[in-house]
Design a protein that fits this description.
It is built from two helices and three strands, in the order E-E-H-E-H. The protein is of the alpha+beta class. It has a single domain, classed as Alpha-Beta Plaits (2-Layer Sandwich), CATH 3.30.70.100. It has a three-stranded mixed sheet. It starts with a strand and ends in a 6-residue tail after the last helix.
Length: about 80
């Protein structure tokens, strides 16, 4: 099992996902998402190193745009 956390957003028919974890774990999950035939038009908006996880207590959770941006104002969706 990969040690990743994050948030899944659904808005206006589109999904967005923030994935946190060790670079190798995130890359492995990203590769699996790209190979999964259930996903189409998969695009990465970027990767960056972080000092601490914003969603450390979430294995993965579905949230709306408003909930994500109100809890994390510097995240622009």
């Amino acid at each position: 099992s990969l040690n990743v956390t994050g948030v899944l957003s659904f808005d206006n028919g589109r999904f967005g996902q923030i994935i946190e974890g060790k670079p190798k774990d995130v890359e492995l999950l990203w590769e699996a998402i790209q190979r999964d035939p259930r996903h189409t038009n998969v695009v990465s908006l970027g990767m960056k190193r972080i000092n601490s996880r914003r969603f450390a207590n979430w294995s993965m959770r579905l949230c709306g745009r408003e909930e994500i941006t109100s809890a994390n104002p510097d995240i622009k969706l």
